[in-house]
Amino acid sequence: MAHYNNLVRASLTDMYQVKMAWTDFATGRHEIPSTFDYFFRTAPFKGAFAVFGGLRQAMEFVNDYHFSAEDIFAFKMDPDMAHYTAEFWQWLGQIDCRDVRIYAPPEGTIIFPRTPVLRVEAPLAINKLLESTLLNQLNYPTLVATNAARIRLVAGWSKKIWEFGLRRAQGADGAVSGSLYCYLGGFDGTSNCLAGRLFGIPVKGTHAHSQVQGYKDSDLHHERIMGDRKTGEKFDLTEAAITARTTLQQHELVPDAKTNDAELAAFLDFGWKNPTNCLLLVDTFSVLRSGLTNFLAVAIALNRAGYRASGLRLDSGDLSYQSKEVRKTFIRVGEFFGFDYFGKMTITESNDLNVDVLEELNRTGNDADAYGIGTNAVTCEGQPALGGVYKLVDIAGTPRIKLSEDKIKITIPGQKNAWRLFGLQGAILDLMTSPQGTIPMPGQDILCCDPFDETKRAVVCPVSVKPLSTLVWDGVNINCSNDYTAMRSYVIEQLRSGQIRADHLRTLNPTPYKVSLSLELYQQMHDLMTEETTIERLT
Amino acid sequence: MAHYNNLVRASLTDMYQVKMAWTDFATGRHEIPSTFDYFFRTAPFKGAFAVFGGLRQAMEFVNDYHFSAEDIFAFKMDPDMAHYTAEFWQWLGQIDCRDVRIYAPPEGTIIFPRTPVLRVEAPLAINKLLESTLLNQLNYPTLVATNAARIRLVAGWSKKIWEFGLRRAQGADGAVSGSLYCYLGGFDGTSNCLAGRLFGIPVKGTHAHSQVQGYKDSDLHHERIMGDRKTGEKFDLTEAAITARTTLQQHELVPDAKTNDAELAAFLDFGWKNPTNCLLLVDTFSVLRSGLTNFLAVAIALNRAGYRASGLRLDSGDLSYQSKEVRKTFIRVGEFFGFDYFGKMTITESNDLNVDVLEELNRTGNDADAYGIGTNAVTCEGQPALGGVYKLVDIAGTPRIKLSEDKIKITIPGQKNAWRLFGLQGAILDLMTSPQGTIPMPGQDILCCDPFDETKRAVVCPVSVKPLSTLVWDGVNINCSNDYTAMRSYVIEQLRSGQIRADHLRTLNPTPYKVSLSLELYQQMHDLMTEETTIERLT
Q1: What is the distance in angstroms between the Cα of B159 and the nearest Cα belonging to chain A?
Q2: Which residues of chain A does B20 touch, with a Cβ-Cβ cutoff of 8 Å?
Q3: Which pLDDT belongs to residue A403?
Q4: What is the interface pTM, i.e. ipTM, of the complex?
Q5: Percent share of chain A, pLDDT over 70
Q6: pLDDT score of B534
Q7: What local confidence, expressed as pLDDT, does residue B536 receive?
Q8: Chain A to chain B, count of Cβ pairs less than 8 Å apart?
Q9: What does the pLDDT read at residue A406?
Q10: CA-nearest residue of chain B to A378?
Q11: How confident is the model at residue A534 (pLDDT cuts 50, 70, 90)?
């Protein structure tokens, strides 16, 4: 398995990385061992957490890392590069990632600001060349998976959530990877056929408004001969539906209104040819004055043939009100006809849903079973980019710090392993330790220091410890999962089980999660801060 | 040339399109001639216009349209599709776009709400199957090109604008197509090597903070032997730079502060190995207390070898203030040393720039020559999705309307050609006419009707008329440009020449542009509205 997108290759990088690689090569610095951390400084969407996505595909990229002859030919045409030596082009043409080591938590892990997500050990020039592509391959997946998890948390666990974002996504890959990472973050599947095929995730869909629009009233009056599922007995589905519609209206089971015949014709054709998965979009004309009645007429007609209609979709108007009216009608009609399952037919809602709309639907009451979420799920309108960064933390065994007047921009120097320390009530904090330092162990006290505030320290005696820095690329093999269904289950387990406390997960004003350093790392960091700070002379 | 992205293929569609195609096939409706319009209802970013992007790549998709055996195999595994017939799979396996005709304005045309951007004539089932992919391939390109044009309008025509968005883009294609359509919309180029190679757009880049971070103070004191560009005379660039730094400080040409030696070492290595394009990032420690002085020291040293440093980049802090201080220093130092070009070295600014920040920089004054814009350029944080839609307007020669209680959602029925009517002061309005109706001609009066308001009508006698519905796909050949540099010039020409009035282009509260119907289309639309409206009985 290679990366699913042909655009993800070595030349998907920023030009300055190539110019830096040249400079390093020309000054003999390109092979200096270096470590970069990938991390983010603040969680997206004003939340406290993120869901780590993109690891497997990033490793597929690393596994196949090379510059093609075409890439190098293109570079050579650049006048800025005219003076680069043949030795450099030869070097660039043969580099790969065999000298690279990458550590990360499993994909799908709930991650927090500051904890290193990837630690990448590589020759200096290669580490720079990898930077832009890795950021591209991790930032958006993590953003989307986080967005999906937040939607899932607000929608609740009993609803189905389908991603419908293809048409508005940012490019083909915004759609395909958007589908994948929505699924990772807790959605049930997608409408996107290609994403389904590439990643084995469930794909759903029934019909659009265009299906209904294509019909005229006169299209209703065709015979639609159908056989009973068991007996094979033939009957006219059209006649059955028209009869049912009359019955529904005469017994005042549905609102008193003449329904649209073109719509009923479209519904009949759809149900006739898709009797095992007849889910109809009912808002082309009017949900309560036409679509609902026409849907029920077809559902009753299909029932005669032994098929159960799946349900309907609402795509405009007051979804809360409509869903409640539809549910009541389903129950009423089911009772009248003696069809138990009618009350439980699916109500799917769509139309610009996002976390805010879902919260509003929760407040006003909502009888939907499923949501279709498109634009917001994949484009993340609340924050369309994750500010993940890739920073040098060690060069040739010497820890490096990046100072800034803005404390949040200070990097935590040195190679670090990260651990999640659990108590009886779930995760207590994440701890970074030096790879040569003490490993946190269950049942043993360990001092955990806030990176910036020396008054914030805690001794933790964890019940269990989970390593967050495992070797996912050893120079030869990818050692991380490509089973997205399992990763999705892992995300859901973390979100549902209390492993991560609910106050860290909530959408509004969540409690920040503690991320801390071992005493050794804390001292190293603060020694470097003192050393590197320019002392101003005040006169 | 095929589509640059392997993900853009027939199976990049929503499942419901396939289910509708099956339904149409099974009921004998799949070959009914149909026309769909692609258009948008409101311009993005609270503006009044958009820049049409994505056409050529969409046509590449159409040109190569087919379902692969793998696609069909995957569909067949879906239990919802288990009952589809062998005839359908055979049909799906052999469809292409030879019976499709597509009309559109040239890519890069400034477009407005309501005017049909694409008119797609195709057999009904094929038109549905195309919908999702075409929307994906047009919405984001148009969104990004529009965002870029707005940035360009605010930045002004004298600045260079570079797109730096790869690391935060929504997927690999969000980056690659983001680069392309920023260029189309008026940017000068990108940092993205792959986008540059694929589309022949200019690529720029120099170095990052990581270049500086990798050095220690002790790295400064190495010999860096350089030959004079003309005479070949050798000298030590390090010594020249250290001498220059001392001179700069002794003559109080630069702020009085000890600069960072590691930074100077990094700058020297970069300048030494890239003397023809030495543009240095000066904010790793402090722009005014370290980076500027170190840059100047290297620039003076390079000058001794006959090379002119390109300039510097500011990436944090108060860009307006810094740029003015830097420019003053450039001029002062240039005068001291007698280097005329010093005052004109490039100041590039980056760091979360967007339209609002640029407007603020315009207000406070800014001495930059160039901007690097990343995240906002490609992810369009102001509005990360364009709501372009694809609506059925004609079936088998019968115009179709989609009514809605929300007037803005009413579609304009029937096949339409669009025209732009120009007066002496630029474009007056866009007019839609029936393909069989009167063609607007220069020097001839024509009645133009607001689609919704019968009191808003105007007789226009255009000076010139530009067709906006030309045949770009005739079933065999693509008839639209793939020359993105020419398209970009066309965008700039429309924005700069007054072809489109400035009040339509401004970022805040622009004047809406008039889009109108011929009397014939107006009457057809309103006849259909009357005909299709359900008359309620009030009791």
Answers
A1: 20
A2: 207-208, 210-211
A3: 80
A4: 0.97
A5: 99
A6: 67
A7: 66
A8: 349
A9: 74
A10: B170
A11: low
| pLDDT given for residue B533 in this prediction | 75
CA of A397: which chain B residue's CA is closest?
Answer: B214
Q: State both tokens at A489.
A: 């289950």
Residue B480 to chain A, least CA–CA distance (Å): 20
Which DSSP letter does residue A538 get?
P
Q: State whether A13 and B193 contact (CB < 8 Å).
A: yes
Strands laid side by side in the A370-373 sheet: A189-190, A160-163, A370-373, A346-349, A311-314, A279-281
The DSSP annotation for A382-421 comes to T-S----EEEEEEETTEE-----SSGGG----S--EEEEE
Taking the model in full, what pTM does it have?
Answer: 0.97
The CB density around residue A295, as the number of other CB atoms within 10 Å, is 30
The two three-digit tokens of residue A126, written as one number: 């290669």
CA-CA distance, B413 to B410, in Å (whole number)? 9
Q: Please tell me which of the candidates A18, A175, A289 has its beta carbon nearest to residue B193.
A: A18
Predicted local confidence at residue A433, as pLDDT: 98
Q: Region A59-68: what's the mean pLDDT?
A: 98
Minimal CA separation from B389 to chain A, in Å: 9
B471 token code pair? 């045949």
Query: Can you read off the two tokens belonging to residue B508?
Result: 């805040």
* R_g of chain B computed on alpha carbons: 29
pLDDT tens for each residue of B286-332: 999 999 999 999 999 999 999 999 999 999 999 999 999 999 999 99
Contacts of A289 in chain B (CB under 8 A): 534
Tokens found for residue A296? 């029920």
Which domains does chain B show, CATH number per domain? 15-151+384-413+475-503 (3.20.140.10), 207-309+311-344 (3.20.20)
**Tokens in use for A333?**
């009609």
Which amino acid does the sequence have at B265?
Answer: A
pLDDT, residue B1, reads 61
Paired residues of B51 in beta bridges? B110
Q: Which residues of chain B lie closer than 8 angstroms to A9, CB-CB?
A: 194
Q: CA-to-CA distance for B364 and B372, rounded, in angstroms?
A: 19
Cβ within 8 Å, pair B15-A124: no
> In chain B, whose CA is at the least distance from the CA of A259?
B534
Mind listing the pLDDT tens digit for each residue in B482-513? 999 999 999 999 999 999 999 999 999 999 99
Interface residue of B13, B71, B170 to substitute, partner A, most A CBs within 10 Å = B170
Instruction: Show residues of chain A in contact with B34, CB under 8 Å.
Output: 214
Verify whether the Cβ–Cβ distance B274 to A80 is below 8 Å. Answer: yes
> Residues in chain B with pLDDT < 70?
1, 405, 534-537, 539
Residues 6+ apart with CB under 8 A from A307: A229, A275, A276, A278
